[in-house]
Design brief:
Two copies of one chain form a homodimer. With 193 residues, chain A is mainly beta. Chain A has one domain. In chain A, 12% of the residues lie in helices and 33% in strands. The first copy, chain A, has a six-stranded antiparallel β-sheet with strand order 1-12-3-10-6-5. The longest helix of chain A is centred in the middle third of the chain and has 9 residues. Chain A is globular. The interface between A and B is large, with 38 and 38 residues. Chains A, B: This is Urea carboxylase-associated family protein. Chains A, B: Pfam families: DUF1989. Chains A, B: It comes from Antarcticibacterium arcticum.
């Protein structure tokens, strides 16, 4: 059954070892940030530093694993029809809009959508790590300069993630203008047994 | 007063707001991993994702700030005589040597040197984030492929970090063969008022 995350919101749920999570961009050009925790002990969680180290690549896609801060495999990426994701940048937060967008007003953010949806699992704001940013198109040049470009994903693009342990997963439909080519769309997901 | 970290060991200490930390590679080609915590609340700590996001660059050097998971500035980099550092890869850990070096035996690691030195401050292994890897030379290509190359630092190269809040700092003399061109050397540091 396909579940729908409305624009600028999020969801959190359990995923059992062996189950496959399908994350879909139904309209195209929409990023979904994802964080993952060990369901048996949420102090074990997804780590960008461990993943980039063990996979020896900045660009994480089909065939790569997502690793934990305890150096264990959390998910295997079985499919990635788009192929461009980001694992460098932190989820957008209230300060992202204050500091980078010069917007002092309230703005929805992936960070808020993570910690509100993860609260029932006992996970607090300080526990939210750098997310794996599905469909996010962060380009880098040889001198290291980063730019957040429009996603390359088309309507219907998806990724498949196989759980390597029992997990708590949180997903968002990202709330940052620059990451989603200026408009906010939903994200769909499905748990496959 | 210059303090000395012996090869393959580490140190942890407090740094007051406004003080400047000097980290020196006394012999050349030696990496020092650094992690930083808010001394008043160690749940606030250095974040690679927030730093790369706010600084809009993979390569962090003079003029950049190191940011926390709460989107606050922790340190300003005042000087960097070498200029090549890494903020992508997690500190080497026992699993680094088991998985990437095929070495099942005990091996010193930055991760162990962090958590043993941080224990007196109430910081546990799971609290250790991705470190800022001073003098570490991680090259990346346009397709994202990463390679750990010999450090470019020469004897006497140093960095200066100004504390933007009261901090707990941990430093290592890195224990990984590939990161240090195959030999292990000390790291020196000094706190300047």
């Amino acid at each position: 059954m396909i579940q729908k995350i409305a624009k600028q919101t999020g969801a959190a749920f359990k995923l059992k070892k062996g189950q496959v999570l399908k994350v879909i961009d139904p309209e195209g050009e929409q990023v979904s940030d994802m964080v993952v925790f060990n369901a048996a002990d949420a102090r074990e969680k997804i780590s960008s530093g461990k993943t980039l180290d063990f996979e020896e690549n900045i660009l994480i896609t089909k065939g790569n694993f997502l690793w934990s801060n305890r150096s264990r495999k959390m998910m295997e990426i079985l499919e990635d029809t788009n192929g461009r994701n980001d694992f460098l940048l932190a989820p957008c937060s209230p300060e992202t809009f204050q500091i980078m967008y010069n917007n002092p007003d309230y703005h929805p953010s992936c960070f808020e959508n993570f910690y509100t949806n993860l609260k029932p699992f006992g996970i607090e704001p300080d526990d939210v790590p750098t997310a794996f940013n599905i469909f996010m198109n962060v380009q880098f040049s040889a001198d290291g300069k980063l730019s957040v470009d429009p996603p390359l994903s088309k309507a219907g693009d998806y990724m498949l993630f196989k759980a390597e342990m029992d997990l708590i997963v949180a997903l968002t439909a990202c709330s940052a203008e620059d990451s989603n080519n200026g408009s906010f769309k939903p994200i769909h997901f499905e748990v496959l047994d």
